[in-house]
Amino acid sequence: MKTKNRHRILFLLVTVAVLFLSVSVYLVYFQLFQADDLAAHNLNRRNYIDETVVDRGNILDRNGAVLAESVPSETGYTRLLTYPVDLAHIVGYNSVTYGKSGIEQSYNDYLLNIQDRDVVGRLRQVVTDDSQGNHVTLSIDHRLQLYANQLLAPYLGSIVVLDASTGEVLAMSSNPSFDSVSLDQNWSWIIEDQTAPLLNRATQGLYIPGSIMKIISAVAIEESGIDQQYVDQGQETVTGYTFINYNNLAYGEVDLTSALVHSVNTYFANKSLLVGADKMAEVAKRFMIGEVIPFDLRTARSSSAYSSGMSEVDLAAAAFGQGTTQVTPLNMALASGAIANGGTMMKPQLVKEIRSPQNSLIRRVTPEVLSQVTSRPIADELKADLQTVVEANPAAGVWGAVVGGKTGTAESQDGLVHAWFTGFIPLEDRDVSLAVVLENQTLMGGDAASPIAAALFQWILNNYDGN
Fold this sequence. Notes:
single chain; alpha+beta; Beta-lactamase; 3 domains; five-stranded antiparallel sheet
């Protein structure tokens, strides 16, 4: 009997010890590997305890205009937003009930001045009584942002404008938007709205690219060294499937430049088979198609149609932007920007710098190369080709600059299309690129998206010098 009791006691002790060890390992794992992610999570309410005693830092545009600030209230501090609808997807919301989004989420630690999570950092905060947050300056020009929003207002869609030489995002519009001030009161109807106003279409909207994909295909054609001449008869049959041009037009003898100018689908279908799926996939990857684009806001990964085992029909369709490839507007603004920037794609940046309440510099964001999409000679040649495209189709052109770009039209639903334009405007010492996508249109990209691009290019020419 005593032996049985001893065994039971021993079993109980071992069980308790194993359970204790398991819980300890579990807690250590979260403390070492998950603590920062959990602390920064937008639904972690412990962050709001900090906000009752910390004057949350300001969010500013590149020119110092205040976009978000905190003011004293009876319960601590109240967040005031200068443009609660126009910058809702960028600045984001800061809700006790529904968490955070945008810069309010991704730079929460800096805005609360709790970025130093180690023991020394926490001790410093206690000793110095850091009860005021740091100020975050964005790359956004709020004037351009408001103008882009105004141009986009009649449509569902997105506009992204960035400095191709630095990667700084100058404007990022997504329509529809929402009122981040009245988020708590209107949450139910916001999340039930079929147009998805909470979705930042600039970074998370995925669209079939249509003919803007020909920019990327052109790089693959240039690099492969294949014969660039083609006799277009208005159709190209690939393993029993016949591809045609818009309006069934035939262009006769064309080269790469004229194929871009006239957006000749058959040309790219034919040449893609000569280039091959592996090369097309390699070039698309350099343009970050199918890759993660690091950014300050949540960003969807564009999807690539290219694979080594794909059919010839799928390969031909992918070359002129049809099929399963899907891209974000941010990705395509980066793509045209890379061509304008000598083949160098810069990492997109939304934050310029962070300063303490005493205005001392904490962090300055410097330009970084994200990808070398092609060589400078090929990029410069394609840049000239895209300028020829706009010269021949001047809806996106402006007086005083030689704009380059490409339109795109992708089938949507019920006979409607997504209308695209992506391109660039050369300035004195830099290029600014952009992407415009308008959902569910009856007009083609050149008719619907190009005039919006032209208006933005004119604003940039008149107002932007890199500062």
